[in-house]
Design goal:
By secondary structure, this protein is of the alpha+beta class. It folds into three domains: 8-76 and 127-169, no CATH class; 81-122, no CATH class; 175-360, no CATH class. The chain is built from ten helices and 13 strands. A hairpin with a 4-residue loop joins strand 5 and strand 6. Helix 3 (81-99) packs across helix 4 (106-120) and helix 6 crosses helix 9 (312-341).
């Protein structure tokens, strides 16, 4: 999933010190090998953002609309599962008939499978996939479509090889340190339920924030002042609640009006907090939406304002500015949460307000 059109999903990273003017040379040195060299083992490396076979990384091809746009490409040969199972079964049946047996031992089946893979794999077409990345040099922020931890780890390794820079994923803990010099990892557990003690849950700044944002949107007016103006914030379903302590307990509310449901109030009263929810920001006639993973600050299904009907490069630049606006609005809201959370006296008062909000909720339907 790229950044040029439609909805997008991404992780965000700090790039300490930013990228130098010669960074393109580093990515070019670690360009992906030609797909024609692909054997039985996967190959990977950098290509431009134009397509997965564009290994010619230059200043001209690497930048698009003023942003560094590259893709970490991976190519491998794969045998479709159904084909592999069928070919293995053919050979198993033949060997069973030749030996006059009703079944084969595990070792024999494994040997047959290895032989089938060795025979079929060289004839399989290359399967290509990529992790698109966009670098915003002004803010020293990298956006990447690395949606799994495995992809994120692979990206970090390849990025460091090309740039000698360790990426820092923007998470509740790293954002608190970077923006507020607050160690959110040291926060003590804080229950939002009037029926649960603080020590009944584990401290989790991301879940505390996302659930606070719901409270903030309903009880505090839901207005966030940012460098781009004043934004309204709303929380929408689907909602994923979780409570950890004596085992993890999860509840997912999707249909109807989950925020107003009896199940939502029950979840809050039982000590659960939001692990995931859709957040929506609005400013004038524009609106932004995305599903936020509270633990990692991973954003899924980001929907940006429509923007103007202009040429492709200008439209891309506008989308990147809209993405920057969304990022800063989210992190500014997090700043506001931290102002209270990091102050024990203010937080005790805030916690009491949140517990009153939970107790007073009136489910509908």
């Amino acid at each position: 999933m790229g950044f040029e059109n439609g909805s997008m999903s991404c992780r965000m990273y700090y790039v300490p010190g930013g990228l130098s003017e010669k960074c393109v040379e580093g990515f070019a040195r670690y360009a992906a090998p030609p797909v024609s060299t692909l054997g039985s083992q996967p190959i990977s490396g950098w290509v431009t953002g134009r397509h997965l076979l564009d290994r010619n990384i230059t200043e001209e091809s690497a930048y698009y609309g003023g942003y560094l746009r590259l893709t970490l490409m991976k190519a491998e040969r794969k045998i479709p599962g159904a084909l592999l199972r069928a070919e293995c079964r053919i050979e198993e049946l033949a060997e069973m008939e030749a030996k006059g047996v009703a079944f084969l031992k595990r070792e024999a089946r494994a040997r047959i499978k290895d032989g089938v893979i060795a025979r079929l794999l060289p004839s399989m077409p290359p399967a290509l996939k990529g992790i698109p990345v966009i670098y915003d040099g002004r803010d020293r922020i990298l956006y990447a479509g690395a949606m799994s931890d495995k992809q994120s780890d692979a990206l970090a390794v390849s990025f460091k090889a090309a740039t000698r820079i360790n990426l820092i994923q923007i998470t509740p803990v790293t954002a608190a340190l970077e923006r507020n010099k607050v160690n959110a990892a040291d926060f003590e557990p804080s229950s939002y339920s009037p029926e649960c003690e603080d020590d009944s849950d584990n401290a989790n700044p991301g879940r505390d924030f996302l659930t606070w944002l719901w409270f903030f949107s309903e009880r505090k007016g839901g207005l966030i002042e940012t460098e781009f103006g004043e934004f309204g914030v709303m929380i929408e379903g689907p909602l994923v609640f979780i409570h950890e302590g004596g085992g993890a307990h999860e509840a997912v509310l999707r249909k109807g009006a989950p925020l107003l449901s009896a199940e939502a109030k029950t979840s809050l009263l039982s000590g659960k907090k939001l692990r995931s929810a859709k957040i929506a920001f609005s400013h004038n006639e524009h609106s932004w939406q995305a599903v936020l993973d509270a633990d990692s600050f991973v954003l899924r299904g980001i929907k940006l304002p429509q923007g103007d009907n202009v040429d492709a490069i200008s439209r891309f630049q506008q989308r990147m500015m809209f993405l920057q606006t969304f990022r800063e609005t989210l992190l500014t809201a997090y700043d506001r949460f931290l102002e209270a959370r990091a102050n024990k006296e203010r937080w005790r008062a805030m916690q009491k307000e949140i517990q009153e909000w939970v107790a007073a909720r009136q489910p509908r339907g």
